[in-house]
Design a protein that fits this description.
Blueprint: E1 4-13, E2 16-26, E3 31-35, H1 42-49, E4 57-62, E5 65-66, H2 72-77, E6 80-83, H3 95-101, H4 109-122, H5 124-128, H6 139-152, E7 157-161, H7 169-184, E8 188-193, H8 196-202, E9 205-210, E10 213-219, H9 220-224, H10 227-234
Parallel strand pairs: 3-8, 3-9, 6-7, 7-8
Antiparallel strand pairs: 1-2, 1-4, 4-5, 9-10
Helix pairs in contact: 3-6, 4-6
Amino acid sequence: MAKLVIDNVDLFYHRVQALRGLTLEVNEGEIVALLGNNGAGKTSTLSMLSGLYRPKSGTVTWGDRDLTTMQPWDIVEAKLLHVPEGRRIFSTMTVHENLQLGGYLVDDQKLVDERIERAYELMPRLRERRNQEGGTLSGGEQQMAAIGRALVGGPKLLLLDEPSMGLAPLIVKQVMEIIKEVQAQGTTVLLVEQNARAALRIADRGYVIESGTVTMEGAASDLRTNSKVIDAYLGA
C-alpha cells in the first residue's frame, strides 16, 4: 500500500524557515485535510511534495519512494499530481484541450479519452463547456477543469491546494462533493484548505498546521468538535 509519510521535515525558502519539524501521514484511500491560516506552511508542504522545493532535513516517502530524491516530472509520472492554488488552467485553450493536456504522460490515447469521459461524467458542467475557452469560465468551472485535468493523468495521490478559494458557498459544496467522489473512485487526497468547515465535512482525518509545524491532529469528526479548532477556524 502506498502511504505518504512526512517525518520531521525542515524546509527553508532562502533564509526563511517555512516548515519546522513537520510530521504527518496520509494512508492510502484517505482524504486528509491540512488546515491553517495564510503563511502557516500549507502550500509549502504541497510544493515540497511536488519536488519544487527540497527539505533541508527530514524524510518524505510515498510507499517505497523517497520523494526528496525525485525530480518534479518523475513525481508526476509516479501519479502524484498537484492541483495548485488559483486553478492555473490554460485560459486560451478550451476545456477539452485542458483535459487532454492532463494526459500528456499517458501513452494510451484510448485511456486518455476514457478518463476525459469519466471527468465529464463526474462534472457534467465541463461537458457543457467543453468547447469554451478556460479564461471565460466561472471560478467554480475553472476549479472543476483543474481537477479534471489532474484526473486525466490517473493520480494515485491528488494534492489539492485551496480548491474552495473565491467560490460561493453553493459552489464550494459542489466542489467538495466532487472531491469525495474522487476518493470513492480510488484516489487518495491531501486537501489543503482554509475553509476548515468544508474540508472537515469530507475528510477522514485532519492536521492543523501553524508556523510550519503540526499543532493538532485527529479524526475529522473529532476536530469538528474540538474547542480550539472551533474558536480558531470554525466560529461559534
